[in-house]
């Protein structure tokens, strides 16, 4: 009997050996570069994973929701950065967590929020440390390193005793796909954030924290001079987007969705499985990359790749698995999909975006090195 046969499908399966390899590799790399690793736990949202990261040497955690911060604090993890621009209405919740013992740092990139933070802290008689978000790649939010707004924000936050440093995320690294491009983006991220810190200091403002990070840049940086910490998240599980970027292989992807073949459209070469976009998520992150895997790449029940097989389409609870001879290593198409993937066949589907796929499930079935399973719950929602 296969160890996964006891699971109902769809199910989130976490390969612990791959997970532990990914965690150790990142920690060793960042430690060798001489800075701290503050993992972004939005990928796993799971205490069992976070505890392993901390045991390997991570210094604090990064969260994307205050619920993650609450759960970490309940487990005794206090050094927390909330790396989403703060909504002023959440400041009472932030203060409550700090008064319960969390060393919680927040983020902003605009004067309206900075002024709201200052007013709130003045009324409460307690400063909340704030990082200024820096835009180093024009990807999303943040203040340009050379912007006049940077110094205005720094002065406003310093006046309320809240200025703690700068933070950036080079999300544009996800569009890179060569080692040279990745190294250049990592240096652009580092240099931009360090430049912002230097400008604040030159203006007489404190800037103790210089925080950078994304999984692609963390795995590509060759120097981190001037940086105090690196944040990365999806490295724990890896996914097909990261494989296309070039920072992992499919054999490093720790998360998969277990699904069962429930029928066929033989004339179309389709096998239907009981995992649709409600299980895989609607994320089509590989669509704009060199190799498009549809909704996921197909493996057998042991996690071995089935070259050429992809989840080419998905409805809410149905996945369409087909063969694409153009995919790497595909070979010749099977003559009969019914014989190739009979009804009842268990498959594991590798995700495009591990964070989005993991969020579809209440927890993980952690497949241990000895073949046993453990249930690892996760913290969903906000």
How would you describe this protein?
With 382 residues, the protein is an alpha/beta fold. It folds into 2 domains: 3-10 and 254-377, Lyase, Ornithine Decarboxylase, Chain A, domain 1 (Beta Barrel); 33-237, Alpha-Beta Barrel (TIM Barrel), CATH 3.20.20.10. It has helices at 16-32, 47-55, 66-74, 91-99, 111-124, 148-159, 179-202, 215-218, 240-245, 277-280, 337-340, 354-358, and strands at 11-15, 36-37, 61-63, 79-85, 103-108, 130-134, 163-168, 209-212, 229-230, 255-265, 270-273, 297-300, 305-314, 319-323, 346-350, 363-367, 373-377. Strand 12 (297-300) and strand 13 (305-314) form a beta hairpin. Helix 5 packs parallel to helix 6. The longest helix has 24 residues, at 179-202. One of its GO terms (biological process) is D-serine catabolic process.
Treating each run of at least 4 consecutive H or I residues as one helix, how many helices?
A: 12
Runs with pLDDT <50, length 5+?
A: none
Number of extended strands: 17
Envelope shape: elongated
CATH class of the largest domain: Alpha Beta
CA-to-CA gap between the ends?
39 Å
Would you list the SSEs in sequence order as H and E? EHEHEHEHEHEHEHEHEHEEHEEEHEHEE
Largest sheet properties: 8 strands, parallel
- Supply the CATH architecture of the largest domain: Alpha-Beta Barrel
What would you report as the Rg, rounded to the nearest angstrom?
22 Å
Structural classification: alpha/beta
Tell me the domain tally.
2
Please give the share of residues in helix: 25-40%
Mean residue pLDDT = 97
Estimated share of beta-strand residues: 15-25%
The neighbouring-strand order within the major sheet is 2-9-8-7-6-5-4-3
Q: Say which CATH homologous superfamily of the largest domain is assigned.
A: Alanine racemase
CATH topology of the largest domain: TIM Barrel
């Amino acid at each position: 009997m296969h160890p996964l046969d006891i699971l109902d499908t769809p199910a989130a399966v976490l390969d612990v050996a791959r997970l532990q390899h990914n965690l150790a590799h990142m920690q060793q790399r960042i430690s060798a570069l001489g800075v701290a690793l503050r993992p972004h736990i939005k990928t796993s949202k799971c205490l069992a994973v976070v505890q392993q990261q901390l045991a390997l040497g991570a210094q604090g955690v990064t969260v994307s929701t205050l619920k993650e911060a609450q759960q970490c604090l309940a487990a005794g993890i206090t050094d927390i950065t909330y790396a989403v621009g703060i909504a002023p209405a959440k400041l009472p919740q932030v203060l409550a967590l700090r008064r319960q013992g969390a060393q919680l740092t927040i983020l902003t990139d605009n004067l309206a929020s900075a002024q709201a933070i200052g007013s709130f802290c003045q009324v409460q008689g307690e400063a909340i440390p704030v990082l200024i978000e820096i835009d180093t790649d024009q990807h999303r939010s943040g203040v340009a390193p050379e912007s006049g707004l940077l110094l205005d924000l720094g002065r406003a936050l310093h006046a309320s005793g809240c200025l703690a440093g700068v933070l950036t995320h080079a999300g544009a690294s996800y569009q890179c796909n060569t080692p040279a491009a990745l190294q250049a983006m990592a240096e652009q991220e580092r240099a931009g954030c360090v430049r912002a810190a230097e400008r604040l200091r030159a203006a007489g403002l404190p800037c103790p924290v210089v925080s950078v990070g994304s999984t692609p840049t963390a795995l590509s940086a060759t120097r981190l001079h001037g940086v105090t910490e690196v944040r990365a998240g999806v490295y724990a599980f890896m996914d097909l987007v990261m494989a296309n970027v070039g920072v992992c292989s499919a054999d490093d992807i720790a998360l998969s969705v277990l699904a069962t073949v429930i029928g066929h459209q033989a004339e179309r070469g389709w096998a239907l499985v009981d995992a649709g976009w409600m299980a895989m998520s609607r994320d089509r992150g590989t669509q704009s990359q060199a190799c498009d895997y549809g909704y996921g790449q197909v493996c057998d029940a042991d996690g071995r790749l089935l070259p050429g097989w992809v989840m080419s389409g998905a409805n809410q609870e149905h996945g369409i698995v087909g063969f694409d001879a153009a995919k790497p290593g595909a070979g010749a198409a099977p003559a009969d999909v019914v014989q190739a993937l009979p009804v009842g066949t268990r498959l594991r589907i590798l995700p495009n975006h591990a964070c989005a796929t993991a969020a579809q499930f209440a927890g993980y079935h952690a497949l241990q090195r000895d073949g046993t399973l453990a249930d690892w719950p996760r913290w969903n929602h906000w």
